[in-house]
Write a structure and sequence with these properties.
It is a single chain. It is built from one helix and ten strands. The protein is mostly beta strands and about 150 residues long. Strands 6-7-8-10-9 form a five-stranded mixed beta barrel. Strands 2, 3, 4 and 5 form a four-stranded antiparallel beta sheet that branches. The relative contact order is 0.21.
């Protein structure tokens, strides 16, 4: 039996005919863009807007920073000691059009040696974890190859 593919957070990303995209919201009054999405009010302190429109975010951005996560997080963070710890790379990506930085894990196999500040990356579908019933889906950042960038 196939396991259900379940987003780790519903409404933060989608895969459709336009490809895999992070989803944010834009204020109809001041045009500020938010991720994670905001559905109640504009988070811009200079705006009292409440009209928020769902918008797909840019697929590509540039590395703003990154860190190499090599140890199991301490309590109170949830981390099952029965599961072998796998290091990962966390990437902060600047989306120029939205004027924001979005965090996410690097795609499997991407290491800090593959990254540099200013390097172009793109958002791709990822898997955060699996259990007997579900595959928990998320997003990852993958470096754009020189051929893809051209």
């Amino acid at each position: 039996m196939a396991r259900a593919r379940t987003p780790v957070v519903d409404g933060w990303f989608r895969e459709d005919g336009g490809g895999f995209r992070l989803v944010g919201t834009r204020c109809a009054d001041c045009a500020s863009v938010f991720f994670p999405r905001e559905d109640a009010f504009c988070r811009n302190p200079a705006c009292a807007g409440t009209g928020l429109i769902e918008v797909p975010l840019s697929r590509r951005g540039t590395v703003w920073s990154w860190t190499d996560c090599r140890y199991r997080p301490p309590a109170p963070y949830v981390s099952d000691p029965a599961v072998e710890w796998e290091p990962y790379t966390l990437v902060a990506v600047e989306l120029a059009a939205e004027r924001m930085v979005v965090l996410g894990q690097a795609a499997p196999g991407v290491t800090p040696a593959d990254l540099a500040v200013g390097r172009e990356v793109e958002v791709v579908p990822g898997v955060l974890g699996e259990d007997s019933e579900r595959v928990w889906t998320t997003w990852h950042w993958r470096p754009v190859t020189p051929e893809e960038a051209a």
